[in-house]
Amino acid sequence: MLRFFVRRFAVAVLVALTVLTLAFMLTRLSGDLAISIAGPNATAADVEQIRQVYGLNRPLYVQYLDWLGRALQGDFGESYFFRDRVAKLIAGRMPVTVTLGLVGLSIALVVSLPLGILAAVKEGTWVDRLVGVFAMIGQAMPSFWLGLLLMIVFGLQLAWLPISGVESWDGFILPGVVLAFSAIPSLTRLTRSGMIEALASDYIRTARAKGLTRLSILVKHGFRNAAIPVVSIAAVQLGFMLGGSIVIETVFALHGVGYLAWESISKNDFPVVQAVVLVLALIYIGLTLLADLLNAVLDPRLRTG
Amino acid sequence: MIELLEIRDLRVTIGSTAAVRGASLAVTKGETHCLVGESGCGKSITALSVMGLLPRGARRETTALRFAGEEIGRYGEREMERLRGDRMAMIFQEPMTSLNPAYTVGSQMTEVLRRHRGTSRAQAVDRAAELLARVGITAPGLRLGQYPHQLSGGLRQRVMIAMALMCDPELLIADEPTTALDVTVQAQILRLLAGLQKDLGLGILLITHDLGVVARVADRVSVMYAGEVVESAPTAALFAAPKHPYTRGLLSCVPVPGKVKRDEPLGSIPGVVPRIQPGFTGCGFRDRCAWANAACAGSIPRRGAGEGHEVLCTLPPDWSREAAA
C-alpha cells in the first residue's frame, strides 16, 4: 500500500513539473512578451524599459528558474490588467468555481448512479434503451445551449431560479445542472456496464444462494464492485468540470476562475492565464492521484496484493 | 417416510431448448445422492431449479417440488430467499470467482447468519471461526480478516462450504465442487463433505461427471441424460448391474484396474448430447444407442429393476446379460 502510494505520488510530482515547464514555455513561444505588454503604441524605448523591469533581458534558463521558484511558493507575479497579485485574484475566484464543480458532480452522481443501476437491472428492456437515449442526448447537447434553454424555461418563463450570478445559493442550481450534464452520460454508461458485469458474476450467484435480500445483492455485492471504476472516473470528471466551467461561468456570469481565464485571455493578461492553466492542471493532477488512492481503498486486491 | 427433497417430473425450458424434460429424483435426510452425466445434460439446471436460481428467461414446471414435505414449487421469490442459505445451501464449481473480491471472508460468512437469524456480529464471527476450524482451516481468526484473493482455490472452496453451513442447513447442493481443484485437494474436499454429512446428518445432492467421485461418496446415484434421469439406483447396484445403455456406456469409459487390458482401447460413446427442442418425444439417447428399436421413439416406461433401482428404457430388464454374452 505504501509503495503503491509513493510510486503514484512520484509520478504526480513529475507530471506537475512537466506542466510547470510547459506553461512557462508556452508564454515565451507566443511572441515577444515585452512588445505585447507594452501595447501597439509603445516606442522601442518603452519596450526596452519593460524588458528591464520584468527581467525579460536575462538568459532564458535564469528566467525559468526564477519563475519556477516563485511559482512553487505560490507567487505568480502581478496581473497586467487587474493591477493585483495573481495568486490573490485566483484565490478570490476559486470558491465559486469549486462550489460549482462540487454541485455539478453531486447532481451528476445523484442522477447517473441510480440510472446506471436501473438500466443494468433492466438490461435489454425499454427502460435500458430509454436511459441509453437520455445519455446520448446529454452527450450531444452543447452546454452553452443547454444553459440558455434552462435559463429561458426556469429563469424567464417560470421565474423559479436566478439566471445569473450567485448572490444566493440557488444561483448555483442551473449552472450546476448544466455542468453535471458533462459527466452524466459517461458516469451512467460506466455504472451500467459495471453493474451488468458485476450482476453476471459468480459471486452474485453465491449471494443469491445465501438468500440475501435483493437490495443487499444489488447494492452491497453488485454496486460495491461496479463502483470502483466509477469513483475514479468521477474524480477525474470533477477535474474536467473545474477546468471546463469556462463556458458555463461565462453564460451564467459567475465570477469564478473560468470567467477570470476568459477575461485574461481576451486582454492578453499572460501571468493570469498562465497561473489559471497551472492551478487547474495541478488540481487535475491532484484529483487523478486521489482517484488512484480511492481505487486502492475500494479494491482490496490493489491494497493488499 | 418423508423425503428431504423430492423432485417429480421437473421440466425447464430456456429459450428454444428443453434443458430438463421430466426429471425426477429424491434425496433422503443424511444421504449423499450423486447426479451424474455429461456436460449439458441438465444437472446444474436441475440444481438451480431447486434453489430457485434459474437464469432469467428460464421456465420451470413440476408436478411436485417438495422440500421437507413442503411444496416449494409455488413459493415466491421472498419465500425462496428465506429458505436459501438457511435450510438449503449450495456450493459451486468455481471457487476462484464465487466469493466477492471486495469483502473479507468473515464479512461474507457472517452476513448469512445475520440475514437469516438476526444474530449479533460477535456471535456470528464466533460461529464463522468455529466452522472454518470445522472444515479444516488452520488459524481461522486470521482467515476471517483476509480477502478471497489471498486464499488458494482449495481454501476458497473450504470457505464456501463453511459459509454454506452457517445456518445449519438440512440440504446441501454441491455443483461439481471439486472439478476446478487439484487431485489431492479434491480428495480432501470429498472426505470433508463425507465427514460433515455423517456428523451433521446433512442431505447432500452432489453433482459430478466424475464416476470416481460417485464410487467414493454416493449412497445413491441418478444418471442424467439429455434432460432426463435415465437411471437411478443405490451406488453398488448401479456399478454392479447398470440397466440403461447410457449408464453402461458411461461406466465402460472408466478404466478399472485389473479389468482393463493394456492394448484394448477404453470404451466410448459415439456421438454428442443432442440439443433437445420442446415437443421432442421418446428417448434422447436413441440416436447414440446400439440397441435402439422402433419403440424408443414413443413414450418410454419407467421400470423397476430391483430394490430402489429404476430405469427409463424400452429394453427388457435382462437385456444387459444378453448384450454381455
From TrEMBL, chain A:
<keyword id="KW-0813">Transport</keyword>
<feature type="transmembrane region" description="Helical">
    <location>
        <begin position="133"/>
        <end position="160"/>
    </location>
</feature>
<keyword id="KW-1133">Transmembrane helix</keyword>
<keyword id="KW-1003">Cell membrane</keyword>
<feature type="transmembrane region" description="Helical">
    <location>
        <begin position="226"/>
        <end position="252"/>
    </location>
</feature>
<dbReference type="GO" id="GO:0055085">
    <property type="term" value="P:transmembrane transport"/>
</dbReference>
<dbReference type="Pfam" id="PF00528">
    <property type="entry name" value="BPD_transp_1"/>
</dbReference>
<protein>
    <submittedName>
        <fullName>ABC transporter permease</fullName>
    </submittedName>
</protein>
<keyword id="KW-0472">Membrane</keyword>
<feature type="transmembrane region" description="Helical">
    <location>
        <begin position="172"/>
        <end position="190"/>
    </location>
</feature>
<keyword id="KW-0812">Transmembrane</keyword>
<comment type="similarity">
    <text>Belongs to the binding-protein-dependent transport system permease family.</text>
</comment>
<feature type="transmembrane region" description="Helical">
    <location>
        <begin position="98"/>
        <end position="121"/>
    </location>
</feature>
<feature type="domain" description="ABC transmembrane type-1">
    <location>
        <begin position="94"/>
        <end position="291"/>
    </location>
</feature>
<dbReference type="InterPro" id="IPR035906">
    <property type="entry name" value="MetI-like_sf"/>
</dbReference>
<feature type="transmembrane region" description="Helical">
    <location>
        <begin position="272"/>
        <end position="294"/>
    </location>
</feature>
<dbReference type="InterPro" id="IPR045621">
    <property type="entry name" value="BPD_transp_1_N"/>
</dbReference>
<dbReference type="Pfam" id="PF19300">
    <property type="entry name" value="BPD_transp_1_N"/>
</dbReference>
<dbReference type="GO" id="GO:0005886">
    <property type="term" value="C:plasma membrane"/>
</dbReference>
<dbReference type="InterPro" id="IPR000515">
    <property type="entry name" value="MetI-like"/>
</dbReference>
UniProtKB/TrEMBL annotation, chain B:
<keyword id="KW-0547">Nucleotide-binding</keyword>
<keyword id="KW-0472">Membrane</keyword>
<feature type="domain" description="ABC transporter">
    <location>
        <begin position="5"/>
        <end position="251"/>
    </location>
</feature>
<dbReference type="InterPro" id="IPR003439">
    <property type="entry name" value="ABC_transporter-like_ATP-bd"/>
</dbReference>
<keyword id="KW-1003">Cell membrane</keyword>
<comment type="similarity">
    <text>Belongs to the ABC transporter superfamily.</text>
</comment>
<dbReference type="GO" id="GO:0055085">
    <property type="term" value="P:transmembrane transport"/>
</dbReference>
<dbReference type="InterPro" id="IPR050388">
    <property type="entry name" value="ABC_Ni/Peptide_Import"/>
</dbReference>
<keyword id="KW-0067">ATP-binding</keyword>
<dbReference type="GO" id="GO:0005886">
    <property type="term" value="C:plasma membrane"/>
</dbReference>
<keyword id="KW-0813">Transport</keyword>
<dbReference type="Pfam" id="PF08352">
    <property type="entry name" value="oligo_HPY"/>
</dbReference>
<dbReference type="GO" id="GO:0015833">
    <property type="term" value="P:peptide transport"/>
</dbReference>
<dbReference type="GO" id="GO:0016887">
    <property type="term" value="F:ATP hydrolysis activity"/>
</dbReference>
<dbReference type="Pfam" id="PF00005">
    <property type="entry name" value="ABC_tran"/>
</dbReference>
<dbReference type="GO" id="GO:0005524">
    <property type="term" value="F:ATP binding"/>
</dbReference>
<protein>
    <submittedName>
        <fullName>ABC transporter ATP-binding protein</fullName>
    </submittedName>
</protein>
<dbReference type="InterPro" id="IPR003593">
    <property type="entry name" value="AAA+_ATPase"/>
</dbReference>
<dbReference type="InterPro" id="IPR013563">
    <property type="entry name" value="Oligopep_ABC_C"/>
</dbReference>
<dbReference type="InterPro" id="IPR027417">
    <property type="entry name" value="P-loop_NTPase"/>
</dbReference>
